[in-house]
Amino acid sequence: MASGGASPAPSILNGSSTPNPSPLNPDINAPLTSTSDAPPHDPSIIKNLHMEAARSLARTMAAHNIHLVYGGGTVGLMGEVARTLVSLTGPTSVHGIIPSPLVKYERGPDSDTATSSLPAYETYGRTTVVKDMHTRKALMAKEVLSGAPGSGFVALSGGYGTLEELMEVVTWNQLGDS
Question: Where in this protein does the record put region Disordered (predicted)?
């Protein structure tokens, strides 16, 4: 869902703290999450609904020893999933991949990859900075697909970028490029 939709947590958890087993393969290893890293326009809605969905996803992943490959953001839902999963399972379970042009949005407008430090490993796991969005998406997909059978992609509420990344993954799957 692009934005403003209902929380995905009920469908993931079927209204409980136990996730539905995958009909395709229960050995999901490292799904890629694509979510918005933009600060919320109405913090109370995001904090109360969407942020809890992000934490719920991380708790479910931790309970099933599922690792995370994500877009490298430290704010918004993207950062919340990463922070929560690292707090539950440690930094080796998370790998963020961020294009250098987005570093300024994560660490302020005057930041660049030469002078800015990466997000704290102990808080966000491993971070890799790449040259552009195409490289980011290709590296994330490659890492997810090299995981255990059943590895997959997850999208939480976000904006146009989230929708674009989700549709690209769907297209790769249809064309057999994944």
Answer: 1-44
Beta-carbon contacts of residue 104 (< 8 Å; ≥ 6 apart): 110, 111, 112
Res. 65: pLDDT tops 50: yes
Q: How far apart are CA 53 and CA 26, in angstroms?
A: 21
* pTM of the shown model: 0.71
What tokens were used for 96?
């963020």
Domains of the chain, CATH where assigned: 9-14+25-175 (3.40.50.450)
Q: 3-state class of 104 per DSSP?
A: helix
DSSP structure class, residue 115: T
Distance (Å, whole) CA 170 – CA 134: 15
Contact by Cβ (8 Å): 134, 164: no
